[in-house]
Design brief:
The chain is α+β, with helices and mostly antiparallel strands and 285 residues long. The protein contains 11 helices and 11 strands. The chain is globular, with a radius of gyration of 22 Å.
């Protein structure tokens, strides 16, 4: 997954006025997410346009006014906004100070074309739990190597979006030890290479959210955290075998040494570089 290190300022001119904006965008290695887009705009106004994908919007600062299918709407930090594909909309700052936003462009099948009409009628979702989950998904997407975590979080965000639009209650969690054990075996077999949640769903014949719920109920931690723990254990063995931290990180399935160091320190209490010391039993030359 490519994540730029810093947001790049971009200066533009519109209608003869100076406009300052900060924009950063990337395509993550997470199935279902076409683009991540973070931006701050002061006086930029979007013309009427459409997208081929669902636009999942968080406004972090300020507010946005927009028309969707000729109906006036507003987006604020108190809600999640979901704009459907193929439906015309525009956008502009609701205050002179502009706004800061984070957007996920989701593939059409993540939410479902059958829910476009419901999203036109109810694009705003004042749900604090959903907003926190979308925020956590953005956090995963900005950390290289956290693809399985992002996939798990996306699955629950998508489920909650569909539930809002269909106006149905949340499903009850149920134990499924057979599925949980099978998923654990897959994760054990693919510790360095990793496992995509959609692939596990196909192999085990269960929905992504059911896989995560069943695994968490059975083992007390979600699948991505279990996989990270297995990778830390593997890295420990490689370090004890004398492999340098950078080499052990990649061999254990981490994105790079910094990725390993972050999780190793959380789990072991020290960095990989400080973990191994020369043996006291080694005889001098």
């Amino acid at each position: 997954m490519y994540v730029p290190d810093v947001a790049l300022p971009r200066l533009e001119a519109a209608s003869g006025q100076s406009e300052t904006s900060e924009v950063i965008a990337w395509r993550p290695a997470v199935p279902g997410i076409a683009e991540v887009f973070h931006a701050r705009f002061t006086d930029h106004a979007y013309p009427m346009h459409t997208h081929d994908s669902w636009k999942l919007l968080l406004v972090d600062v300020g507010a946005v006014r927009y028309d969707l299918d000729r109906h006036p709407n507003a987006a604020s930090p108190a809600q999640v906004t979901l704009l459907p594909p193929h439906v015309p909309h525009d956008g502009r700052a609701a205050t002179p100070d502009g706004f800061r936003k984070r957007v996920l462009y989701l593939d059409d099948d993540v939410v479902g074309a059958d829910l476009i009409g419901a999203a036109v009628d109810r694009p705003a979702m004042p749900d604090a739990v959903l907003r926190h989950r979308v925020h956590e998904l953005h956090e995963s997407l900005t950390e290289p190597g956290e693809d399985l975590q992002a996939q798990c979080r996306l699955a629950f965000v998508a489920e909650q979006l569909r539930r809002h639009l269909r106006r149905v209650p949340a499903p009850a969690a149920r134990r499924d030890p057979g599925v949980a054990v099978a998923l654990r075996e897959l994760l054990d077999a693919r510790t360095p290479a990793g496992l995509r949640l959609d692939e596990a769903s196909r192999l085990l014949g269960a929905s992504p959210t059911h896989l995560v719920r069943a695994f968490t109920l059975e083992y007390g931690i979600p699948p991505h955290r279990y996989l990270t723990g297995r990778r830390v254990d593997l890295a420990r063995q490689l370090l004890l075998d004398g492999r340098p931290p950078a080499e052990a990180a990649v061999a254990a399935g981490f994105y790079d040494q910094a990725h390993l160091t972050r999780h190793f320190r959380r789990t072991v209490g020290t960095s990989p570089a400080r973990f191994v010391r020369p043996s006291r039993n080694t005889s001098p030359g």
